[in-house]
Amino acid sequence: MYDLNDLLYLMARLRDPVSGCPWDLKQSYKTIVTHTLEEAYEVAEAINKGNKTELKEELGDLLFQVVFYAQLGKEESVFAFDDIVSAIVQKLLRRHPHVFPDQNLRASFPEGTTFSDEEIKQQWERIKQEERAQKKQNEPSELERRPQFLAERDSLLSDIPNTFPTLLRAEKLQKRASQHGFDWQSIPPVLDKLEEELQELKAEMKKFSGESLRSEEAHARLKDEMGDVLFSCVNLSRFLNVNPDDALRSTNDKFQQRFQFIERMLNEQGRTVDDASLAELDALWERAK
What we know:
It contains twelve helices and no strands. It has helices at 4-14, 22-26, 33-49, 52-75, 81-95, 117-137, 147-154, 166-178, 187-207, 216-239, 244-268, 278-288. Helix 1 (4-14) packs across helix 4 (52-75), helix 9 (187-207) packs antiparallel against helix 10 (216-239) and helix 11 packs across helix 12 (278-288).
């Protein structure tokens, strides 16, 4: 059995300028980002399938991404793997004062000590606000000293990455605004807002027809209204306590299963989807349901 030190050693060998792997030597923080995202999604896929053996392998692939970044940081003398570990331990100690008294990893509260969900939530919000305030105190870059960047840097939304998957980022933006009072108070107005956005989309669709739908103006207007509809759908999901990404992933899987059922039924007849009429496909779809 190999351990973490073996993996760190292996990574260093891969990046050895003399005897390392040519592909690994060409990589940078930016070039491996895509691989990191892919590995994270593959972890999620293994979990959704309930395949523990596959999950073990995918978690290893994801861990390797962290080790790769750590090696790059070590080569630049900016951080190493131990620095990453230390930083996350410090953060988790700070964010769990209801578990670790005085941020002491080895300390515990007296037996019987309890904290309510509301107390824990209030602590969490206070800690997050303190962390955001600390980030703002960091010396800004020359670019960030320009007036147009100051408002963005000081915004309550500034620490929500643009690189998040779009559904996740929409949910995060809405939740952050909600924490500061900018939110609907119940579900009915959320539904009304979704209906309003759908009507606005329909109104824009009526303005364009035929070739005009392909125009830059049509594309810009329809993209804008479609974005509002999707944002409202995420808002409704949030109020229903349904993760929008999970919901859409489930529907994607359901669609795939039903479509593959259609393919199997046609294949038994020696036919393909392209050979069937729309009426036949609809009938098989109903059978799949």
